[in-house]
């Protein structure tokens, strides 16, 4: 997929699914935690809010992260690898702020250690599926005809 179309697809999927498993390498083991996507910029950068004291902030120093998005009811999946940066930018935080974030940051934008993470994607691929009924139909059809079924769309994004 061409770069502009790739970023549009990345934005569409990440912002519609919203929650991802944010995977990092802290020591010998990979760690994963759910994170809410604040925004995907027109250039493809993905933004998150965090606390400077949180483990995830320790991995946002040019470290490679893996973002796994899954929307089971729509059968949509997105896998993104990228480089994370911890950002302390009040103006950007104001721009990205959503009142629902008060659940995690009760002092809102006044939270002393409020930080942003910017992930610059380097690789992404997606799978857009079809309904379970359609999947079953395609599997039965494939079994009867000996031809491969159509189980949705898969693509690699050029970022």
What does this structure look like?
By secondary structure, the chain is α+β, with helices and mostly antiparallel strands. The chain has one domain (3-157): Pnp Oxidase, Chain A. 25% of the residues lie in helices and 42% in strands. It has helices at 3-17, 55-58, 90-96, 132-145, and strands at residues 19-26, 29-36, 39-40, 46-51, 61-71, 76-87, 114-128, 153-157. It is elongated and about 65 Å long.
What gross morphology would you assign? elongated
- The span between the termini is 9 Å
The total of beta strands comes to 8
CATH topology: Pnp Oxidase, Chain A
> What's the main sheet like?
8 strands, antiparallel
Any idea what the CATH superfamily is called?
Electron Transport, Fmn-binding Protein, Chain A
Number of helices: 4
- Fraction of residues in β-strands: 35-45%
Oligomer: single chain
The overall number of domains is 1
C-alpha Rg (nearest Å): 18 Å
* CATH architecture title: Roll
Q: Which structural class do the helices and strands define?
A: alpha+beta
Task: For this entry, give a set of tags.
alpha+beta; Pnp Oxidase, Chain A; 8-stranded antiparallel β-sheet
